[in-house]
């Protein structure tokens, strides 16, 4: 259940819907996972500076169960920075925080995510 969160000072009107779908599709491909449970929230219109500059910038985080490592994070960084530059004109003012989630600390709807994963694997 990866979550790619983008906080940006880019105005909402300048954020194309294509960014959401392309980010989900490309991230699923890069992670080798089904995009069905990916969450990609984009939070525009943030009051933010980057190194005292108010130019278009972003603070992002990628949260995932597994698939977080130094080698993979470099690949994701290249992917995300490319997407944010392409769709929002943000470059090079992008921070990305990579966070390994613990399955026991997550819930999906009314079920602990661990139970959901176990049931999913039992069906295979």
Automatic annotation (TrEMBL):
GO molecular function, one term: phenylpyruvate tautomerase activity
Entry-linked SUPFAM superfamilies: Tautomerase/MIF (SSF55331)
Domain of life: Eukaryota
Subcellular localization(s) per the UniProt record: Secreted
Keyword field: Cytokine, Isomerase, Secreted
Pfam family, one: MIF
GO cellular component, as recorded: extracellular space
EC numbers on record: 5.3.2.1, 5.3.3.12
Reaction(s) catalysed by this chain's protein: 3-phenylpyruvate = enol-phenylpyruvate; L-dopachrome = 5,6-dihydroxyindole-2-carboxylate
Gene3D superfamilies in the cross-refs: Macrophage Migration Inhibitory Factor
PANTHER family: D-DOPACHROME DECARBOXYLASE (PTHR11954), MACROPHAGE MIGRATION INHIBITORY FACTOR (PTHR11954:SF6)
Family indicated by similarity: Belongs to the MIF family.
Protein name: Macrophage migration inhibitory factor
Source organism per UniProt: Salmo trutta (Brown trout)
């Amino acid at each position: 259940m990866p979550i790619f969160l983008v906080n940006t000072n880019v105005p909402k009107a300048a954020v194309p819907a294509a960014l959401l779908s392309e980010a989900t599709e490309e991230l699923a491909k890069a992670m080798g996972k089904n995009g069905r449970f990916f969450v990609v929230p984009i939070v525009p219109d943030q009051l933010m500076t980057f190194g005292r500059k108010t130019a278009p910038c972003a603070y992002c985080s990628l949260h995932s169960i597994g698939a977080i490592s130094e080698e993979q994070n470099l690949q994701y960084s290249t992917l995300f920075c490319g997407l944010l530059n392409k769709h929002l004109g943000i470059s090079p003012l992008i921070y990305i925080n990579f966070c390994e989630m613990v399955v026991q600390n997550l819930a999906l709807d009314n079920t602990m995510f661990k139970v959901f994963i176990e049931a999913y694997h039992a069906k295979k």
